[in-house]
Amino acid sequence: MHWIWRRETDVPPAMGVVGCGDVARALFAKVEAIAAAQTTPQWQVSAHQDLLVLTGNTETLPWVDGARYIAPRADAPTLWLPTLERPEIALDLLAAAIARKHPQRPMLLWPQPAQLVPLHRLLPADAAVLARIAAHWVS
Q1: What gap in Å lies between CA 103 and CA 114, rounded to an integer?
Q2: What is the DSSP string of 44-68?
Q3: Does an H or E element contain 78, and which?
Q4: Is the Cα dihedral 87, 89, 90, 94 positive or negative?
Q5: Do residues 127 and 31 lie in contact, with contact meaning Cβ atoms separated by under 8 Å?
Q6: pLDDT at residue 139 above 80?
Q7: HSE of 42 in the Cβ direction (CA atoms, 13 Å)?
Q8: Model pTM above 0.85
């Protein structure tokens, strides 16, 4: 399946934020600082070597320069996308095609670098989870 990305005309409210590369590290540092002052995690988090995904209430999401907000769309609720862009293809059909190959749901479809990120493994952004991410990124 091939498509191009276009600007989103009906921007949904953000339900998460993503950082890639150096932006992921800057976003992580901000998350660690905020989370250290809290007793209950307010976000869910997932990371791999070059990406950090944080989900939560719109008004609590942190921001760093270069990070991008994400959200699902009404016509494909299991498919999360950047809030400011979308594939130029019917999202319900795209979500169905992705689900045939990747049954985990929800999934984040990320444009650059192009990747599909499972969101079903998000964990509470507590001190233990953040310490595991930090340890993984150091090694």
Answers
A1: 19
A2: EEEEETTEEEEE--GGG----TT-E
A3: strand 76-82
A4: negative
A5: no
A6: no
A7: 15
A8: yes
The number of beta carbons lying within 10 Å of the beta carbon of residue 139 is 5
Alpha helices in 1-139 (DSSP H): 22-36, 91-101, 127-138
3-state secondary structure 87-108: ECCCHHHHHHHHHHHCCCCCEE
Alpha carbon 84 to chain centroid, angstroms: 13
Report, in this order, helix, strand and coil percent for the chain, each rounded to 5: 30, 35, 35
Q: How far apart are CA 79 and CA 86, in angstroms?
A: 11
16 exposed, middle or buried (CB, 10 Å; 0-12, 13-18, 19+)? buried
User: Rounded to 5 degrees, what angle do the CA atoms 13, 137, 37 make?
Assistant: 60
* 46 CA to centre of own chain: 8
What amino acid is encoded at 113 in this protein? P
pLDDT one-digit tens code per residue, 10-23: 999 999 999 999 99
